[in-house]
User: Fold this.
Amino acid sequence: MNKIIVSLKGGLGNQLFQYANLRNLSLKKNLDIHYNSDFEWHGQKCLLNSFNLKPSSSSFNAQYQYKQLTHSRHFDPDIINIPDNTILIGY
Assistant:
């Protein structure tokens, strides 16, 4: 099965937003989700492990990369059309 991947970073709010975006895309496109849970950001570890989420492999390969524009705080509607096997990078 194809997958969608997110490279988590930031505090809990950013992690939750990134996961919600990942989950939404996985449901719309019927994709397996993968995310990294072994990172540390300013002394804070991944907090998604505290929630009842499906475990994810932290080792994965992606064919494509979708990177958030620097300092962008706006929704990019093109994210809905990203290809399968893409890694999402950004806050």
In short: The CA atoms of residues 10 and 41 lie 6 Å apart. Residues 12-29 form the longest helix (18 residues). The mean pLDDT is 83. Strands lie at 3-7, 32-35, 40-41, 44-45, 64-67, 86-89.
